[in-house]
Amino acid sequence: MRGDRSVQPSQSTRRQGLGSLIATCAIPLVISAALSTTSVRAQEVTFTRDVAPILFENCVECHRPGSFAPMSLLTYENARRYAPRMKTKVQTRQMPPWHLDRTVGIQVYDNDVSLTDEEISTIVRWADAGAPKGDDRDMPPAPRLAEGGAWQLEEQMGRPPDVIVSSAAYDVLANGQDQWWGPTQRFEGLDEERWIKGYEFKPAYPNGLRVVHHGHANLRFADQTLGIAHYGVGKRYETFPDGTGMLLPAGEAEVNWNLHYFPVGERVDGDVVDVGLWFYPEGEEPEIETRGEVLMRVDRMNGMPRGGDILIPPYGQQVLQGVHVLRRPTLISSFRPHMHMRGKEMSMEAVYPDGRREMLGKVSDYRHIWQLSYQFEEDAKPLLPAGTMLLFTSVFDNSEENPLNPDPNQWVVFGRRGVDEMSHMWVGVTNLEQEEYDRMMAERQERERRIAARDQDDDQ
Hints:
Number of strands: 24
Shape: globular
Strand content: 25-35%
Distance between the termini: 18 Å
Number of domains: 3
Radius of gyration: 25 Å
CATH class of the largest domain: Mainly Beta
Helix content: 10-25%
Number of helices: 8
C-alpha cells in the first residue's frame, strides 16, 4: 500500500519454472526424468534473459563507456569480467548505493534505487554458475541513455533550465588532501521575483563528477541568503511538488560557492560547476513556500567551538545526539546525512508533543563516498505538528572494522577534511501555517481511510 508508514521489508519471489507437466499416461520413470530436466532448466540464469534487464534498468546510467563509474556493464563481455565483483557488491547492498536500514523507519521513497531480493538472487546465481551468456535472441534492446553531460532534469521538466549559474574554474590536483573552492561571483538577477520548481547541481562530465564530493550554491541578497542548490555524490537535483516552490527575489545578488573537491589520482584542470534553475510559469504562485534542504547540526557548540564535542579515541566509537525543535507545523520531504570517514550510522527520530516517538529514517551503513538524499514518497512524508522535536543520532566507528577508516590509531576531532569528522543532516523542510497543516492532515487521513476501506472490501 503506497504511503504506508510501517516497515515493509522487500519480499523475494521464486520463479516457478516447472510449468505444466501433462503426462497422465507416462510411466513414473519418464515423469521423474521430465521433472528433473525441467527443474534444472528453471534454475538456469543467463545474462541475455535475466541479468541484462536488471543492469539496463538499474546500473548502466552510470556504468557505461566514458562515464565516471569504473566500468561499463552494457555488454556481456564486460559484465562477465566483473561478475564476481558484481556478486559481492549486490549481496552486501553496496550497489546500487542505498544505505537505509530496512528494518526501522519509513520504507517508501521516490528515489529508492535498491535492488529487490529476487534481483540480487538472480545476479548471485548467474555469477555462481560461471556467468553464462545465454541466447542472443533473449537480449533486450540497448537502453536509451541521455548524453553524459546532459541535465538530468531536462526530460522531466520538458526544457533546459530557465537560468544557469556557473562557478569560476578550479584546477584540482592529482594527489593530496581535500581541497575547497569558495568563489563569490556577481548574479545579475531577475527583473521580477520567480518561484523555483526545481534545481540541478551539475559538475562537469565526466571528471568533475569524480572529484566534486559535495557543494552548495547560495544567493546573497541585501537582506537575505537563499540556498538555491545543494549537491552530494549521488544527489544532484531536487524538485518540489506541484503547489510548492522556493521564492527567488528580484534584483542583483552574489553567488557564494562552497565546493569540496577530493583528488582521485588524476589532475583535473578548469573544473566548472553549473547550477540550473527551473521556474513555475510567469504569474503562477504556488500555495506553499518551501525552504528546501536545511542544515541541522548534531555536532553542537554548547559554549565551545563548533564540533568540540567530537572526540573519537583510537580503535573506539562515539555516539552524538542533537535536538531541533520545530516551532511551526512542518512537512519533511527528505533527509541526507553528512559525516566523514568514521561515520557509521545516522538516524532522524520524531518526538511528538504528547511524548510519542517515531523513527523516521535511519542510515545504518553510512559511507562517506556517497552523499545520498532519501526522498519520501508523497503520502509518507512526515507531517509534524508544532512543538515536535527532531532527534538526530550519529555513530562514529574508528576501529579496523570500518572499511573506510584511513588510520584507526588516530584520535579524531572535528574538521573539514575527510579524515576529520563532523555531523549534521540536510533535511527537506517546508514550514506550514496551522491551517495548511490541518488541511493536509485531514486530506491524508481521508486517503488512508479510503485505502483501508478498499482493502477491507478486497478481503471479503
